[in-house]
Amino acid sequence: MDRIKTIVKEEFYLFFQLKKTERLWHIPLLASLCTGIPLLLGYFGGRLDYGVLACIGGLVILYMPSTNMEHRMLTLLLCAFGFVISFAVGAAFSFDPFLSAVALGLFAFSINWLVRYFALQPPRNFFFIMIASMASCMPFDVVALPTRVGLIALGTIFACILAFFYSLYILRRIPHKAAPVFVRSADRFMRIESAIIGTFISLSLLVGHTLHLDNPYWVPISCLAVMQGLNVAHVGRRSLHRILGTFVGVGLTWILLAAEPTALHVCIAILILQFVIEMLVVRHYALAVIFITPLTFFLAEIGSGFSLDTDLLITARLLDIVIGSLIGALGGWMLHNRQLHRLAIVRVSRHRWRKR
């Protein structure tokens, strides 16, 4: 009983604690510009739907490492290529819900293995799988596919250009050490970890389709966000923080929508919200989720002009996140359960021995 009280006190203390970070405010500003400017260009150009796709590609700026110029740009260019592939894979199988779930699971397995093998820094596999999830739930349209993929690519190119000029400025003020171009990291748990992630991402999208949710891609996205915890306790904490943050975020979304914002106001709000999120996400996950909720809601519905019942949309979004977080909590427990890992390794070893 005393042990439970101690754990509860620790979790209560951690919930109200802001972590220290050495992250410069420049990165949140760059992230908001890389998402906000394409949206504004789309708005003033009369194609807001194009702006939404380009701003998603702009999120590649979050993968810029704090290293020398060569390593920065090479990392960003490879991640930009990964963004394009992620969207193309998701969109190519969106014609069938079951097939898209299987394809997403296989893609999640592959991208997690590659990210782990080359030791890519946070946010690691998150945005690759997120983009593939969103693309897999879009209406299938072969004619529009090249245009959509091209818009994602344009967003990544714009982000790379901003990153290049920013790096010219910051590297003169704060010199960074050279980093190896390719850092390979391999261990025996990589395949097991990737298989668990791929399975639960596929399962979560399948659950979203089975329940006929309006935006089923939020289920695997929430599942993945929770599974990124460092250990079982961290996974449980992220699940709780995501659900609590979403409840508060729903209230913030209602307040923002009550003001009856125009499309231009929503674009500006997305730019500001992106900056706030990137400032908070490394310091307090639950606080960041409060602002992630209206941001993702605006991105998902800005194209439709909020023509549907906002109460129903917000309720559906809340349900998506709760389901995804619970599935992610289960997946995270399996991901960090060493006993299950040992059992899987023994079975794989026996299977290989029998083949010999």
Automatic annotation (TrEMBL):
Compartment annotation: Membrane
InterPro entries (UniProt xref): Memb_transporter_dom
Organism: Sphingobacterium paucimobilis HER1398
Sequence intervals crossing the membrane: 24-44, 50-66, 73-93, 99-119, 126-145, 151-171, 192-211, 288-308, 314-335
Membrane disposition: Multi-pass membrane protein
Keywords: Membrane, Transmembrane, Transmembrane helix
Secreted recorded as keyword: no
Organism ancestry: Bacteria, Pseudomonadati, Bacteroidota, Sphingobacteriia, Sphingobacteriales
A Pfam family assignment: FUSC_2
GO cellular component: membrane
Domain Integral membrane bound transporter: 204-330
Main location: membrane
Protein name, entry field: Integral membrane bound transporter domain-containing protein
